[in-house]
Amino acid sequence: MLAPIVLLAFAALAVTLGPRLLLGSAWVRQAPGWGVLAWQALTLSILAAAALFGFTLAAPVSPLAELIARLFNTTPTEVIEHYRTPAGVWVAYTAVVVVAGFTVWMLWLTTSTLIDTTRSRRAHLRLLRLLGRDHPGGFVLVEHSQALVYCLPGLRKRVVVTTAALELLDAHQLELVLAHEKSHLRSRHDIAIALTDVLRRTFGPLRLFTIAHEQVRTLIEMQADDAAHDRHGLARALVTLGSGTPEPGIGAGDVATFARIQRLTDGAGSWKRRQSLAVCLATAALLATPIALATMPMIEMIIIGCTTVLG
Predict the structure, then answer these.
(1) How far apart are CA 223 and CA 250, in angstroms?
(2) N or C terminus of the chain with fewer C-beta within 10 Å?
(3) Are 54 and 247 in contact (CB under 8 A)?
(4) 33 Cβ partners below 8 Å, 6+ apart?
């Protein structure tokens, strides 16, 4: 009975304290790549806690109890004894139905997001073939009155520049903006955005997942900004471009432009290797905690068994 309670407590703590800690930490924007990892670890740990909450309630159901027993080299009776709740077996069967429904819901959202994104990109590529032309600079040039520079991720990745942007940006600024877009494509930032979008749609009532989606979008832009060798030059280019990017592209000047310009002009700051190690260990611990809490009854049983044998 203890495992579901501590999992619920962990999820509540992560939902309330996690965003406050990350939003109030300067290092997240100082090292945006690690910041993206931290936000993803936070949201995935809450997802894991929710899934394992249902799993621990469902553990007394015979097929699941047999599976757990094989994993921990024990008997189904022991599993049922350590995971049963005072409410009775109906709670376990209800949990099985809820977990199964939740899994189907997640799979449907993920699949529909992938299908919608793929269709949108194909439609956009067809438009680019009709309206754009390849430029010697390694991008697709499109006749348009709005100054836009953005990339289209995927198998047929493209960087798109409008004629208005080409007229406004000088050669140096254009080089910096193109480096930004190529960083998006190289790092597959679209995958990070898609993941947070699925979680946002799944856990809509929880404000945390909307915040995480917004923060990840901002941080990947900052990470791509770091690909520029001239930070002040890129800041000037962002001011020139303004904002606006057609879906499903990722643009140079469409997300948190003011915060990014301020960050570029303030300087990069120093980031030490031990800080990377600390963030890596913290995110690993965050992801491992729900698993440890869910398996706590079986670990406790093994420890007691070993103590009895040794005694």
Answers:
(1) 13
(2) C
(3) no
(4) 219, 223
